[in-house]
Design brief:
The chain is built from twelve helices and no strands. By secondary structure, the protein is an all-alpha fold. It has two domains: 7-140, no CATH class; 147-318, Four Helix Bundle (Hemerythrin (Met), subunit A), CATH 1.20.120.940. The longest helix is centred in the last third of the chain and has 31 residues, at 288-318.
Length: 321
């Protein structure tokens, strides 16, 4: 059952409240603005939170400078604020500070209302940003670990791939495509997307070897998924079952059984060479139909080889970390 109030919601509410209390205690005007900044600063990852805080600090300094110049020349009028936006927004985008446009403009509006760019008000706006962004970063230091969820994703993904390969072996023998195959691929794809998102979120919160591993793992499985989709297309072109088909089907079943996370695929790749040899010593095709079927089987084996090479390369690279 999904929680009604999540961790991010709780942190946002508590952080915004605390920001307003601290800003008021410091004697800052428009203390509620610090609470709004906290709301915009609480993110899903530590990295994003810090990055946005830096953007907003930079955009605030730029905004206050432009507004100060324009309010001095044009006066504290709506026209001056419009000119400020015309100049500030393109510059904020150019300097990659677009996420700070709204917050910085809200702070500038305080100067417009107060009709002043005195050091007191400049300090007031900078402190509002400092309190809001600072609490946002502070509250984002704690991020609940999602390792367990990622491990569950791994198990689910492996189980689905095993199931798909097992059905491929059956299809090779019977030429009868599994009815639920489309659903299997759909479920696998959806979980790969979820797992990849979790892995990257974990990396942005905890930059360590384990979090990097999860990202690489999801990338490896995603590539294998694309290979499986390509292999699946071969079944539409099969006509009959031949001796070579049984050899390939048996090996496909073995791959399914040994597809787990820690298998480096070296043994399977060695055995695949034997499968190629076993197929090559079979008598030459006598009909066009048999020739085409043999060619499709060969392509299927090459795709299976690529699938295993992707796994082997993943294991080799992870050993380097």
């Amino acid at each position: 059952m999904k929680k009604f109030i999540g961790m991010r919601t709780l942190k946002t509410a508590v952080g915004a409240t605390l920001a307003i209390i601290i800003s008021s205690a410091l004697g800052l005007k428009y203390a509620a603005a610090a609470g709004i900044i906290v709301i915009l600063s609480i993110q899903n990852t530590k990295k994003t939170s810090i990055y946005l805080a830096m953007q907003r600090f930079g955009s605030t300094i730029l905004a206050l400078f432009i507004a100060g110049v324009l309010f001095t020349i044009v006066g504290y009028t709506p026209v001056a604020f419009g000119l400020y936006l015309i100049i500030f927004i393109p510059l904020a985008v150019k300097f990659k500070m677009a996420d700070g446009i709204v917050v910085s403009s809200v702070l500038v509006s305080h100067l417009l209302v107060e009709r002043s760019i005195s050091p007191y008000w400049i300090k007031n706006e900078l402190l509002l940003m400092g309190v809001g962004a600072g609490i946002g970063i502070l509250f984002n230091i704690y991020m609940p670990k999602i390792d367990r969820e990622i491990k569950k994703d791994q198990i689910y993904i492996e189980d689905k791939m095993i199931e798909i390969l097992a059905h491929m072996a059956k299809t090779l023998r019977s030429q009868s495509v599994y009815i639920g195959e489309e659903q299997l691929f759909k479920e696998l794809q959806e979980r790969l997307i979820i797992g990849s998102e979790r892995a990257y979120r974990n990396l942005n919160n905890y930059v360590n070897e384990e979090s990097k591993y999860y990202v690489k793992y999801m990338e490896m499985r995603t590539l294998q998924f694309e290979i499986l989709k390509y292999m699946r297309g071969n079944f539409e072109r099969f006509y009959k079952t031949f001796a070579q088909t049984e050899i390939v089907a048996a090996f496909t079943e073995r791959v399914a059984l040994d597809l787990h996370e820690n298998n480096n695929a070296e043994g399977l790749l060695e055995d695949l060479k034997s499968v190629f040899e076993a197929c090559s010593i079979q008598k030459l095709p006598e009909t066009r139909e048999e020739f085409e079927n043999r060619a499709i089987l060969f392509q299927f084996l090459k795709d299976l080889e690529y699938l295993l090479e992707v796994k082997r390369n993943f294991i080799l690279k992870t050993k380097e970390y």
